[in-house]
Amino acid sequence: MRVDRTPRFVDAILGWRWTGLAARLLLVSAYLLGGVIKASNWSAAVAEQAHFGMNPPALWAALTIAVEIVGPLLILSGRRVWLGAGMLGIFTVLAAITANAFWLLPPGSERFMATNAFFEHLGLVGGLILAAMLAQAERDRA
Description:
Low-confidence stretches: none
Order of helices and strands: HHHHHH
Mean pLDDT: 96
Radius of gyration: 18 Å
Helix content: over 70%
Number of strands: 0
Strand content: under 5%
Largest sheet: none
């Protein structure tokens, strides 16, 4: 047996017609849920933006909600995936810099957690880029 051969069960999962949609939903679920929760609790959304020093907080809350809802819907629809991924990618980098500025923290457990969260956010950006690349490849094949 060749070592580089993909196991049949993996081929079956990757070839299933719903796998792509399920993967995109998993990728954007935190954003979509965050946008819906913020939209349903406006005062908390504004308070969150104020907490991070974003002024005016109401404007930033509205922009955050829009990005967290529109971006995932574009990705899930398969239309203008590049735009949805770009919106969420830029949002995620800015959020990581704002909320997880580990380089400003003294050594210790808080810095460790902020560093981990920062790089997890960068990993999400990588996933968003891959989603846009995959959508482009599918469009090119069609």
